[in-house]
Amino acid sequence: MLPFDEVCPICHKACLDSFGEHAVHCRELPGFRYRHDLVRDVLFDIFRCAGISAKKEAPVNFLTDPLEGRSTLRPADILVFGWVGGKHACVDLTGVSPLVGLGSSVFTVGQAALKAASGKVIKHEKACIDNQHVFIPFAFDTFAFLAPEAVDLLSRVQKVMHSNVMTPRSMDVVFKRLSFAIQKGVAAQLVACLPTISM
Fold first, then answer.
1. What residue spans define the domains of the chain?
2. CA proximity to 54, closest of 91, 81, 87
3. What is the Cα–Cα distance from 59 to 38, expressed in whole angstroms?
4. What is the pLDDT of residues 143-174, one digit of tens each?
5. How do strand 6-7 and strand 15-16 relate by DSSP bridges?
6. Entry's PANTHER family (predicted)?
């Protein structure tokens, strides 16, 4: 993808390798935030199309980093109203590269996404419970692996969509749209790292 290996010009910490591996997990590169926001927007649109009441970037005023307290107050990526037993659900998206940290361990499919989901639960679940909300980590990796909580959420949305919309496309549109959004986000990250060719 790139003509030769070189240090990442943005984070200055890792090799921007010729195969583009670093480009899909460097948090400092321009496409990283775009991928997260694209997947969030597509997920929100899926809720809307299924007739599920939800709000994007909802200011719930209690999602914090336990170590830093209220200084890290942030909105829920998506707040789904009355989702579990009448309680609102805070859905928090996180996308990771499955290639991160492979130097010392054997590659296991989905390991990075599962670890990310677990970290989100540790960080936010207690605050949600204390405020009468449910927390759902929506973790995915750049190979489109989805953590179990994400699969459960999408499966339920798929059932709601099938009941409310009932078109031939509604049978599997949820998973297809999310998978396409993830891959589109990865493609944008890779394109952002391509060297510019002067003509």
1. 30-186
2. 81
3. 19
4. 889 999 999 999 999 988 888 766 656 567 88
5. antiparallel
6. PROTEIN, PUTATIVE-RELATED
pLDDT in tens, 111-133: 889 999 999 999 889 989 999 99
190 Cβ contact list (under 8 Å, min separation 6): 1, 20, 23, 24, 31
Instruction: Give CA–CA dist 116/93, Å, rounded.
Output: 10
168, two tokens: 């031939």
- The identity of residue 44, as a single letter, is F
Token readout for 115 is 């670890």
CATH 3.40.1350 for the 30-186 domain, yes or no: yes
The burial of 137, by beta-carbon neighbours within 10 Å (0-12 exposed, 13-18 middle, 19 or more buried), is given as buried
Establish how many alpha carbons lie within 13 A of residue 98's alpha carbon, considering only the half-sphere containing its beta carbon.
Answer: 17
What is the chain's Cα-based Rg?
18
Does the model's pTM come out above 0.85?
Answer: no
